[in-house]
Amino acid sequence: MFNLISALSRKQKSYIFLAIDLALVPLSLLFTLILQPRPETAVATLSTLLPVLPYVLLAMALASLRLGLPMVQLNAYERHAVGLTALVASFTASVLALLTAGFGPHLSPGTYVVFAISLILFMMAIRALMHQVVLIIYRRASPRCRVLIYGAGTTGTQLAQALKSHDGIDPVAFVDDNSSLQGMTLVGLPVFAPTGIQELMSSRQINRVLLAMPSQSQPRQAQIIQRLQALQLEVQALPSFAQLIGEEALVDKLAPVAPQSFLGRAARTLPLNEAASSYADRVVLISGAGGSIGSELCRQVLTCRPQKLVLFELSELALYTVHQELLQLARGSDVEIVPVLGSVTDPRQVRMVLASQGVQVVLHAAAYKHVPLVEANPLPGLANNVFGTQTLAAASLSAGVERFILISSDKAVRPTNVMGASKRLAELVLQDQALRSGQTIFTMVRFGNVLGSSGSVVPLFQDQISRGGPVTVTDPQVRRYFMTISEAVQLVLQAGAEAQGGEVFVLDMGEPVSILQLARQVIESAGHSVRDADNPEGDIAIDIIGLRPGEKLEEELSLTGELITTRHPKIFCTRESVLSEIEVAGALRGLRQAVAAGDEAAARQGLQRWVEGYGSQDTTRKSS
Distance between CA 279 and CA 516 in Å, rounded? Predict the structure, then answer.
């Protein structure tokens, strides 16, 4: 059954969903007629409706396909999809009412209402049931992870007992350096000497080693981990159970909580499925490949099996780091990894790289993104973010690149800082290219803050806590949209694959998060208490330092406030005004002159002229 489900394409699955929905129509109608008091039986009444039923089914199929309901995946069936279900069911009931009014039999108005409600409930229920069945099939088909526990002390034995009831993990044996324990059986598992690990790997099919020796010194643990990794084993370490329940000092031994833990909602895993075909067997160039977003783009594009992955990066260290990581990930595959050290603002090098590597898809993530730094250094920020985008886009058009996807920011909407204005001007440049493009598809994807990226707020808070505080928050009312890096990149690749040219895609990031509340969560997750008026003896204080230049209380997602749904429930599109070709050329010419002259005032005046919202003082204190 697992192989059958896995072999189905997205389109085949959508046909199955549509067929099931159509089958629910007569079932819901029969259920409705049973509930309604009538002289004749429900079956008899249903038989009189048979002449109009095919037309009702046809109308439902057309409405469902038009709204994209069959394309909604089971794990993505949420509030938006429920709304689509209600629309389809209501439309179906309306068509039934019209047909029976014209051709009979005549039914009471309440019958159509009950039919619509029944159809909605049946469609929702069948999807919920199918989701649970599919989950059970996948869980049974997935192989259990067989683990070896290094350390047969208290932590190791308690871990083994806990794992025995786990659905996906199978503890196989212990290894321990203590010779007095070797050869014994603890909690039903044998204890071996570390020298026998390599033999255990093959004889017991070990997938992973759990290091359960928290009392060992860090250098000793590092030596053990290195030895195990040399055997090509995945190793994970954990603290003792005594530490976890507070019986031992914990604060200095626990690693910082992962930033995604503060998302305020469940992180989404969104498989690429059909979108992967837009990157498979192609030469993909990722600018800014060593950054937080760029490196995750590299990892996820690599899973799409491109022909070649070109890493374009200005920082030598960042390029070296991501190149070494990708070489390991690509081991055993035929994907070629090409590191290129350079700047997107260099037209000669950009043209040479695109031509020599035969690039077909460009993911443009190279940008200066830190608001205070770009605000303090506006000319380099504008040169990199605006001219870099213009240079790479123009060269991509000349080289006949298939797709060009710009990574943008919600700070581009009515920006009050140079960084946001530079991203909005980059969007306008790309929209102008899209209008004049031949075969190249130019598009952009706009989203908010990324948890855990370089310079983002959670690592900053954790660093401040490690130094004893205080944690600094600009304003108690500040709220921001957040996504995990993985979520953002998955949706960027989805949007880029669906683009037709010129779209501004906006990602669904959930509800905005209070930065003050986020600061409290990070402090408490580190095992400290917040020092404030209610708790003057607390550990870490929160200082309100005031909004930084160009900072808003809340970010916006679009200039119009209108978000248009797409085939993907987490991706929206917005329609916004664009500049003409002459206006774009004038904006770039004026900006080049300001940068060449080192005139920051002229550059800011140019941004005020061409970027909507930039320079407005009232938007720094409120969102529109």
Answer: 40
- What are the helix (H) ranges across 363-450? 371-376, 378-382, 388-399, 418-436
How confident is residue 131, by pLDDT bands cut at 50, 70 and 90?
confident
Over the stretch 455-480, which tens digit does the pLDDT of each residue have?
A: 677 778 878 877 777 889 888 888 88
270 three-class SS: coil
Q: How many CB atoms within 10 Å of residue 532?
A: 12
* Helix (H/G/I), strand (E/B), else coil: 190: strand
Question: Any residues with CB less than 8 A from the CB of 601 and at least 6 apart, and which?
Answer: none
Is the pLDDT confidence value at 206 over 70? yes
Q: Indicate the SS3 state at residue 185.
A: strand
Phi and psi for 404 in degrees, rounded to 5?
-135, 115
The count of residues in the chain is 624
Find out whether 70 and 64 touch, Cβ atoms under 8 Å.
yes
180: helix, coil or strand? coil
384: left (phi over 0), alpha (psi -120 to 50) or beta: alpha
Q: How far apart are CA 183 and CA 174, in angstroms?
A: 10
Are 448 and 410 in contact by the 8 Å Cβ rule? The answer is: yes
Is-cis flag, bond preceding 39, omega within 30?
Answer: no
Structure tokens at 139: 């869980």
End-to-end CA distance of the chain: 51
Round to whole Å and give the CA distance between 353 and 312: 9
Q: Which amino acid is at 510?
A: G
> Please, are residues 164 and 238 in contact by the beta-carbon 8 Å criterion?
no
Pairing of strands 403-409, 234-237: unpaired
- Are 392 and 350 contacting, i.e. CB atoms less than 8 angstroms apart? yes
Are the CB atoms for 204 and 146 separated by under 8 Å? yes
Q: Report the C-alpha gap between 600 and 605 in whole angstroms.
A: 9
DSSP output for 440-503: -EEEEEEE-EEETSTT-HHHHHHHHHHTT-PEEES-TT-EE-EEEHHHHHHHHHHHHHH--SS-
Alpha helix locations (H) across 152-291? 154-163, 197-203, 218-229, 241-244
> Token match 């598009």: residue?
443
Cβ atoms 324, 281 nearer than 8 A = no
Distance CA 455, CA 452 (A): 8
Q: How many CB atoms lie within 10 A of CB 586?
A: 15
In the three-class reduction of DSSP (H, G, I as helix; E, B as strand; rest coil), residue 303 is classed as helix
The model's confidence at residue 245, banded by pLDDT at 50, 70 and 90, is: low
C-alpha distances out from residue 421 to 284, 482, 607, Å:
28, 20, 7
SS3 369: coil
Residue 147, judged by CB atoms within 10 A of its CB (0-12, 13-18, 19+), counts as: buried
Cα–Cα distance for residue pair 191/183, rounded to 1 Å? 5
What DSSP string describes 24-90?
A: HHHHHHHHHHHHS--SS-HHHHHHHTTTTHHHHHHHHHHHHHHHTGGGS-GGG-SHHHHHHHHHHHH
Q: Which of 262, 266, 269, 251 is nearest to 452 (CA)?
A: 262
Paired residues of 284 in beta bridges:
309, 361
Cα distances from 357 to residues 303, 305, 352, 437, in angstroms, run 20, 17, 8, 21
The pLDDT value given to residue 244: 53
Q: What angle do CA 215, 526, 155 make, to 5 degrees?
A: 25
CA distances (Å), 580 to each of 428, 609, 616, in order? 9, 14, 23
Residues 346, 328: contact at Cβ < 8 Å? Answer: no
